[in-house]
Every structure is written in structure tokens, then in C-alpha cells.
Amino acid sequence: MNEKLDLQSSPDRDAEVPLEATQKSRWQRIWPAMACGAGLFSDGYLQAVIGPVNTILSKLYPVSYAQSSAAQNVSSIAFAGTVVGQLVFGYTSDHYSRKWSLLVSTVILFVFAALGAGAYGANGSPQGLFAALTAFRFLLGIGIGGEYPAGSVACAEATGELKEGSRNRWFCLFTNTQIDLGFVIGTLIPMIITAARPDDLGLVWRLSLGLGVIPPLSLLYLRLKLKEPESVSREAFRHGKTPYWLAIKYYWPRLVLVMMIWSATLRTCVRRHLLMTVVVAGSSTIS
Fold first, then answer.
1. How many CA atoms lie within 13 A of 98 on its CB side?
2. Residue 15 lies in a domain
């Protein structure tokens, strides 16, 4: 019996235990995956909502906004921030902590979603408003980018503790389904608000952006309680070099395919505001 206990408490022995065999309840295995992956709903919503907002701003400011570079900057600058966020948080989540990378990206999301909703130009200047929106959207994009390497990867690692045969189902539910749902909701919400308040488009675009604060805030508590995924605790790159060239050598076809999909997705998001044009076309404008 003593020999058996010694084997169970040995660090070498623990390292050999399969992830799905760790002593945790079903809920203890599922909620970390949910907390890590469900943040992609925020990403989907915040990426999609800017299309309708861009259309509304073009109607409110037909000359100073629609006929200037501001329209393109506001609608697409978040994607530049997303790339920056993916690179920065990809490194920090691999070399330091998945949990704290997730927390920082979550804070960035709700802070700059709120600032974007309350953006204001000095002395009511429209150009100042557009500049502030552009800056806030870029910084928001950094938080969006952080969700992909920190949240999606941590979710995949957390599902490794689930029983074989159910992992992919939970992973898709907490990642792919969430971001797609965010895309749909981010397009529908401005339409619903516009239908309710067609004569107050200023309220419509600010409230549409402001509602983007709710999803990241709803996950903040769960992410504070997160622990590092078991696989990260065992195999993190904290004490070694990241094998970049080895990854490229073996996974470059998949990387190219993902880049192509990303390119198509981003183009779809940028053009999403065309759906909103039909709704806003008959609405009154405010100065």
C-alpha cells in the first residue's frame, strides 16, 4: 500500500497520467473551456457591429465622413490591431501565462468598447470624433487579437481533459459557434435599435457599440478563477525556445489555408455594413 501511495505522489508518475484521467468533476473540466473560448463571441460582435455603425455614420455625416478616409479607417483599423494582438499575446500566452494573457485581452476589450461608444471630438468636432473612434478601434483590435492565441488555444487545451469522443463537440461549441453567433448578433442589434428609434441614429450607433461591453465583462469573473491548463503546466515554453521553424516546416500548408480563410472572413466583415444600408436608408438623420 505504501509503495502504491509513493507512486501516486511521485512527480514523474503524475506527469504520465493522461489529461482526461485527472481527478476532476465534469463541470470542473467544462467551465475552463467555456471561460477560455466564449470570449470569441465578443470578438464576433465587435467585429460585425462596426459595419452597421459605419453605415449610420455615413448617413449622419455624408460629407465629412462618407467622402473621406475616416469611413475606411474606422471600419477596418481594428483588423490591424487584431494582427498586433495576435503576435503579442501569442508570445505572452506561450512563454508566460494563458490566464493573464486572457485577462489582459478581456480588460482591453471592455475598456475600449466603452470608450468607442462614448467617443467625442474636442468642441464637438466631427473630425475629432472620427480620430478618437479610429484610435479606440485599433486598440480594441489588439484585445480582439489576443483572444485567438490565448483563448482559442487555452480552450483546446482545456478540452483535452474531457473524455475522448466529446472534445471536438465542446471545442466547436465554445469557439466557432460563439464567434459566428457574435457575427449574427452584431449585425442584428443595430437593425433592431434602428427599427425602435429610427429618428435617433446617434443613439443607435453609440448603444450598438456600448453593448459590446457586456460579453467580456460577463466572462471576467470566470477568467479570474481560471488556472493554467494542465497541458501548459506540463509543456510550456517558459524554460525553452519556441520551435518556430519546426512548426513552419510541418504546418505551413495549414498556415497558408488559415491565412486564406482569414482574408476571406475579414473582407466579409468589412462589407457587412451593406446589410445595414437597407435599414438605415429610410431613417431620418440628425446633425
1. 29
2. no
Contact between residue 190 and residue 204 where contact means Cβ atoms under 8 Å apart: yes
Q: Provide the b/e sequence for 146-169 (b: ≥16 CB within 10 Å).
A: bbbbbbbbbbbbbbbbbeeeebee
Give the type of residue at 43.
Answer: D
Between vectors from CA 140 to CA 118 and to CA 204, what angle results, nearest 5°? 40
Burial (CB count within 10 angstroms: exposed 0-12, middle 13-18, buried 19+), residue 28: exposed
Nearest to 20 by CA among 161, 205, 231: 161
- Do 219 and 85 meet the contact criterion of CB atoms below 8 Å apart? no
Domain extent for 243: 26-278
Count of structural domains, the chain: 1
pLDDT in tens, 205-222: 999 999 999 998 888 888
Query: CB–CB of 73/214 below 8 Å?
Result: no
56 in any annotated domain: yes
Confidence of residue 263 (pLDDT cuts 50, 70, 90): confident
- The answer to whether residue 1 sits within a structural domain is no
- Over residues 42-81, the pLDDT tens digits come to 988 998 899 889 989 988 998 888 888 888 888 889 889 9
Asked if the structure places residue 251 within a domain, the reply is yes
